[in-house]
Amino acid sequence: MKMFAYRGKHENFGDELNHWLWERLLPGFFDEDESQLFLGIGSILYDNFDPNMQKIVFGSGYGGYTNPPKVDGNWTFYFVRGKKTAEVLGIDPSYAIGDSGHPHAQLLGCEKHRKALPGLLHAALRKRHVRQLG
Asked: Which of 50, 30, 97 is nearest to 5 (CA)?
């Protein structure tokens, strides 16, 4: 599974947080296999991803930089950044929890949660993946 993070001409804190945060929370989890794409922090829900690629959304938002993506069976949502994103994508508003960068960055300050979070994320992603394959 490849982690997608936007990189523009000028660095943006949230976009750069992807590179710092996910490798610390999920060390060794990501690779360059583009058949599965992990979409975490940022307004990165675009319409130009390969339609055959499995997209795993973990807190991303839709920022209007492209047309809204066509949500089909190749999209898996754990949560999205907000109600507007859920509305634009036509998904259940209960998926609108918040930006994935905010709570995870706060958890890194707590030793107990920092140690538990990687296992929880691994389990959640594996469970969802197995459920889709089954």
From this structure: 30
The residue to which tokens 């590179």 are assigned:
19
Residue with tokens 């469970």: 127
Q: How far apart are the first and last CA of the chain?
A: 19
Three-state secondary structure call for residue 37: strand
4: left (phi over 0), alpha (psi -120 to 50) or beta: beta
Order the strands of the 2-4 sheet from edge to edge. 2-4, 36-39, 54-58, 75-79
Q: Where are the alpha helices (DSSP H) in the chain?
A: 13-25, 83-89, 101-107, 111-133
> Using CA atoms, how far apart are residues 79 and 59, in angstroms rounded to an integer?
5
Return the structure tokens found at 116. Answer: 């538990």
Cβ contact 69:86 at 8 Å: no
What is the rounded CA–CA span in Å between residue 106 and residue 103? 5
**How do residues 67-123 score in pLDDT, each as one tens digit?**
999 999 999 999 899 999 999 999 999 999 877 665 554 555 545 444 555 555 555
| Backbone dihedral region for residue 98 (phi beyond 0: left; psi -120 to 50: alpha; all else: beta) | left
